Amino acid sequence: MQETIATARENHDMPCLNYSLSWLHQFGRKHPEEMTGIQKRGVLGSEKEALLFLKTKAKETNMWTLLSKTLLSEAKFILSNGDSASQAFESIVKAAHLNITENTAESYGSQWLMQSSIFDRLGVGCQAWVYTEIFLACDACSSPVEDVLQSQCKSAHMLARRGRYDEAISQMHKVDPEALRALKHQQYWVTNLGILKLYRHMHRGEIDAGDQVLAQLYAAPARVQELQFGLSLMEVELQVRRADYPNALALLGKLLTKMDQQETDIFQRLKTMTLKARIYDKAGIPQKGFSVALRAASLAYNARLLPLLWEAMAAVCRILVSVREFDAAVKLVESVMPQALECEDCELAASLFSCLADGHMGMAGQSKANTLQRKERLTKASESLDRAFDEYSRIEDIQGQCETMAKKATIMHLNGDAMLANDYAAKYLDIKRAAREQI
Question: Which of 6, 48, 84, 272 is the most interior residue, by most CB within 10 Å?
Answer without folding.
Answer: 272
